[in-house]
Structures
1.
Amino acid sequence: MLNENLSIMKRMKFPVHGDRTIDLVYRADAFNLFNRTSFGGIVSTIGNPNFGRPTGPQVGARLITMGVRVDF
C-alpha cells in the first residue's frame, strides 16, 4: 500500500522590545498526499461471478490540516 505523508512548518520571529520577540508558527500536514486508493474486500470464493473483484476502498481520501501558533 502506497501512502505519502508530508509536513511543512514556517517559523517567523517579530521583534517587540529589546531582546523580546513574538514567534508565529504556521504548520501544514497532508496525509495520503497523492490520494492513492488501496482496494480491499476482494471476493475470494471460487465459482462466485465476482471472483477477484474488490468491493470497496480500504484507504480514505486525502486529509490536509493547517494550524497557526503564536508564542510570546
2.
Amino acid sequence: MDIEDLAETFELLGDWEERYRYLIELGRKLAPMPESEKDDAHKVRGCMSQVWLAHSFRDGPQPTLEFRGDSDAHIVKGLIALLLGLTSGRTPQEILDMDIAAVFTRLGLEQHISMNRRNGFYAMVERIRQMAAAART
C-alpha cells in the first residue's frame, strides 16, 4: 500500500463516515489469520479489543517481512489492514525507518478515532517494530 495513494483515497472519501466504511472494508479484505496464531504469543497487549499479529519471512536478495493480523472489532481490523498494507513486503530496516505515526496523523486518524483505539493502534505499531528489530539481528 502506497502512502500517497492512501492519503489521496482518504481525501477523496470526504466525510469520516465514508472513511470509517473504507477502513471496515479494508478489514474485510484482510486475509484470514490461522486460528492457531490467535493465541497469547501473538496477542497484542494494550488493545481494548482482541488483536493478534504474526509474521513470516519472504526470502530474496533482501529478506522482507510478511505480516498477518486479525481483530474481533471491525474498525480495528481495518486499522490492522492499513498497518499491514504499509509494512508487509518491506525489509526490517524499511519498517523501522517508517514514520507510521506521521502517516496516521496525515490521514486524520489521530483526531477521528477514540483514545482507546489510538492507543491500541500504537501498541500494534510497537509490536510490528519489535518484530522488525528482532528480524534485523
3.
Amino acid sequence: MKEALLYQKLANDEVRCNLCNHFCVLKDSELGICGCRKNVKGILMSLSYGQLITESLDPIEKKPIFNFLPGTSSYSIATVGCNLRCDNCQNWQISQFTKDHDSPFPGYETSSQEVIERAQESGAQSISYTYTEPTIFMEFALDCMKLAHDKNLKNIWVSNGYMSRACLELILPYLDAINIDLKFFDNNNYLKYCGCKLQPILDNLKYLHQHQVHLEITTLLIPNHTDTGNQLTSMAEFIAQKLSVNVPWHLSRFSPDISYKMPDTKATPMSLIDQAYKIGQSKGLNFIYVGNVADDERENTYCPRCGFLAIKRQDYQTEIFADNGLCKNCKYEIY
C-alpha cells in the first residue's frame, strides 16, 4: 500500500478521492468504486501500488496502437481493478477482480525500478499500462513513467478515459501515447452498461489532443448497443470535428464468449463492421482500422493522399513501407 496522491481530507475522517470522475467520498475503512483505494483512518491508500497481476512483452499493435512506433514491442504491466464495471468487458477476470472477490488484494510485489530493468532487458521501446485501467494504479504507473523517460522508453496508456483532470495533469509530462475506449456515444448506455458518464470521457479526449499526446480511439462494436440511434455517426463526427481526421479509430469485433455479463449478445456481424467503417470514411477519417477480424486488409495503414500501402499488418506481424514516416510514393507525411 501507498498513500494516494489525489485526495482531499474531510470531516470525521472521511476523504474524497480525486483520481477519477467518480470522486468517491469514503468513510473510514470504505473502499472506492474501483476497489483499489481505501480510507484508512482518514488517509486514502492505494492498495494496488506495486502489486502487479501480470506483465508481458507485446507487439505495440496489440494495445491497439498502430500509428506510433509501429512494428515495435511494448512491455505491458497491470494490477487488478477498474473504476468502471462494463458488462461488455473482455478482460474481466482481472479488471473486475476486486468487485467479484472478498479475498486479500492479489498480485506480486514489484518495484518501479524492476519494471524498467525488465523492460530494458526485453528490448521493448515502450511500456504500456494496460489490460486493466491504469488510472487505478496511477501512483505506481507514474513512478514507472518517470524512470522510463530517463531511460528513453516511451509510455503508453490503454484507458477507459475516465480519469480526472488532476490525474491527467500529473501524467501528461511523461505520457507519449494513449488509446482510449469510446464505448458508446450515449450517456444512458454508459450509465447502464459501464456505471459512468460520457461527457468526462469526451472532455478528456479533447484535452489529450490539445496537449499533443498521440491519441488513438477504440470502439467495441456491440450489436444493438453501439449501433443504436446515430451513435456511430456521432462518434465519427466527434473525432473528425473535435479532434482530428488523423486520429486513428479502431473498430473492434465483440465476442460474447469472453464478455463479462453479455454472453447472450451476438458476436459482431461483418455487416456492422462494414457499416461503421463506411461511416468513418464518410466523415473524412484518414485511419480507420478493423480489429479482432482475421486477415482483413483494413488493418493496414495507407497514405491518406495517394492510397499507397505504408504499413502492412497480419497476425501482429508488421511490414513498413514508409520512409521515416513519409509515404514512399508521394512523400506525404503520415501521422
